[in-house]
UniProtKB/TrEMBL annotation:
Pfam family name, one: DUF3048
SUPFAM superfamilies tied to this protein: YerB-like
This protein's name: DUF3048 family protein
Signal peptide region: none
Stored InterPro entries: DUF3048_C, DUF3048_N, YerB-like_sf
Organism of origin: Ureibacillus xyleni
Domain DUF3048: 51-189, 220-330
């Protein structure tokens, strides 16, 4: 009986020791597992894209590219428009708008349809030290291009070679330049694509919010002619971007079907005057004036200035307005009837 009790006691002790060893082993394994879990630290990217304000790993070395994009309803949807860092929209003749698309962060597979140059398009490209792409020109623009006002390639000289025609549209709505042809285009005209005259904008840091202003989640511009050239921007609080409609049709990229997603929508009021029987215009892009800035669902009235050839929104104290990182769309608004009459928001 005593022997049995001793055996039971010994057996119990062995069990306790065994269980204890097992628990210790499990603790050690857990400790080892915890120690081997890799800790990933967020790496601060050292560079910022000059025209979108986005963080990148490598410094930008390519010169900006500016292309005149056809905005006629028969030219929509345009190709490569979602890849543009900045899009400028302005009247070209009558109440028909045209786009200037600036590319640097990304060169799309195809850009277009490409359309003809105007003198103020060329001035904008020159101010940004951009390589300028167009197909055709007004008389004033032709003189400027022939005099070397800006490095450029024109489809009038390279139609069917550097510029390609699409079969699904008719001229003048079917001229495109493949992205891979831009380097060849620069070589043809002995132009450098090296980013030398470095221009950039001022951007908010990722953890900053845009300044306070009037809440406005919808903004519309009316150019006074066909509704096809009226644009509506709607703010999405989830994505913190603006979608765009032109003529009540969503603006998408023909290459991908991707909708435009804008971080900043700006309106610059400028004097416009008709200069010929075709309705071509002269636009004063130097004097400055009233501007509207829409960011993160907020509207603010500020000013715009031409700073060494670069058009920028500025505060009343003269400091540069910060942009939210991402794509920007800038409208030029005729001073008659004026920005208050042409741009509405709610």
């Amino acid at each position: 009986m005593v022997r049995n009790k001793v055996m039971i006691a010994l057996f119990s002790t062995i069990l306790l020791v065994g269980c204890g060893d097992k628990e210790e082993a499990e603790k050690v394994e857990e400790s080892v597992d915890e120690e081997t879990i890799p800790v990933t630290e967020e790496v601060e990217l050292p560079y910022v894209t000059p025209f979108t304000g986005e963080k990148i790993a490598n410094e930008v070395t390519m010169r900006p590219i500016i292309a005149t994009i056809n905005n006629h309803p028969d030219a929509r949807p345009q190709s490569g428009i979602a890849s543009a860092d900045i899009v400028y929209e302005m009247l070209a003749e009558g109440n028909i708008t045209r786009l200037l698309a600036l590319y640097q962060s990304e060169i799309p597979e195809i850009i277009g349809p490409i359309r003809s140059a105007r003198d103020y398009f060329i001035e904008i490209a020159a101010g940004l030290d951009a390589f300028y792409i167009a197909h055709g020109y007004s008389p004033e623009a032709q003189t400027m291009l022939m005099n070397g006002f800006v490095d450029n390639i024109n489809g009038m000289a390279y139609d069917g070679t550097i510029f390609k025609r699409s079969s699904d549209r008719v001229a003048p709505h079917n001229s495109y330049i493949p992205g891979e042809n831009i380097e060849l285009a620069a070589e043809k005209v002995n132009a450098s694509l090296l980013y030398q005259e470095k221009v950039s904008y001022n951007f908010y840091e990722p953890d900053e919010s845009a300044k306070m202003g009037i809440e406005a989640t919808s903004v519309e511009i009316n150019y006074g002619g066909s509704s096809s050239f009226n644009s509506l921007y709607t703010y999405n609080a989830d994505t913190k971007t603006y979608s765009r409609e032109a003529g009540s049709v969503e603006t998408t990229d023909n290459l991908t079907g991707e909708p435009i997603a804008l971080s900043n929508v700006l309106f610059f009021e400028m004097d416009h005057s008709i200069i010929d029987s075709a309705g071509r215009l002269e636009i004063d892009i130097t004097s400055g004036g009233t501007a509207y800035v829409f960011q993160q669902g907020i509207m603010r009235e500020v000013l715009w200035e031409n700073v060494d050839g670069v058009l920028k929104a500025v505060e009343t104290d003269g400091s540069e307005v910060k942009l939210v990182p991402g794509q920007t769309w800038i409208h030029f608004v005729p001073s008659n009837p004026g920005i208050v009459s042409s741009v509405s928001f709610s």
